[in-house]
From TrEMBL:
PANTHER family: DIACYLGLYCEROL KINASE THETA-LIKE-RELATED, OS07G0609800 PROTEIN
Residue ranges of the region described as Disordered: 174-215
UniProt biased composition (Low complexity): 188-213
Protein's name in the database: Phorbol-ester/DAG-type domain-containing protein
Keywords: Metal-binding, Repeat, Zinc
InterPro entries reported for this sequence: C1-like_sf, DC1, PKC_DAG/PE
Domain Phorbol-ester/DAG-type: 12-62
Highest taxon, organism lineage: Eukaryota
An annotated Gene Ontology molecular function: metal ion binding
Pfam family membership, one: C1_2
Gene3D superfamilies assigned to the protein according to its UniProt record, in alphabetical order: 3.30.60.20
Organism field: Eleusine coracana subsp. coracana
Amino acid sequence: MASSQQSHFADPHKLSKVDYSGRVGHTCNICGLELTGIAGYRCQACDFDVHEVCADHFTETVSLFAHPWHHLKLSRIPPTSSDSATRWCCDMCMEPFPPGSFAYRCVGCMFDVHPLCTMVPQTIRSPLHPEHDLNMVPSAGRCRVCRENLPIWQYVCGGSCLFRVHISCVTGEEPSGAEQGSAGQGNSSSPQPEPQTQQGTTTADQTTSGSQSIVVKRSRTTRVAKFLLKRAFFMAIDATTGGLGSPLIEILAQALG
């Protein structure tokens, strides 16, 4: 996008190109990261902001391995009141959507996923398990690194090793500071023996516990972006997109400082 005004499917009005240098308090409505010091587009009437790169990268519809039956459309999550029983969560990372934020959605199947989560590669090589590729699949079990219960989507060995790991643990890098969970959780980057899953534990229980094990005291978008910036993710994204994802990765690095 090069002109001073552009149309975008996510907003009914023309967007004006803005240099966000010196501006604070603006976040991209699509990726959720700050725009300070980064070029973007804005609709004043709708209070809609978007990185220039996000406007180019995130298309109106996508195909995703996690939901191969239908295309997903980028649209707003319906706003809900604070006391509403409805809580919209990403079906990949299990983290909630802020009311009115954007998601890739299959409304018929009630499948919703954060835009940044669509960039998580389906297959990756991890230094923790270099013998085989790890594939993103829905399953149950415990992480071989932090030994906590896993959410629905996790990386699992494509061979017969039964090696499975959190998205947040797969690169083998020690989490730092606020990225760590509660004391005693996820504090080792070395694979540990996988304990037996307790009898009678339901998938829902494992999902809840697993999502808590990777929840950290910072915004979801910041956490996912940090994962994408790690070398193993970056290389997989670059290979999958033929280099088209590189500009967005560079913006994530700039936004995170």
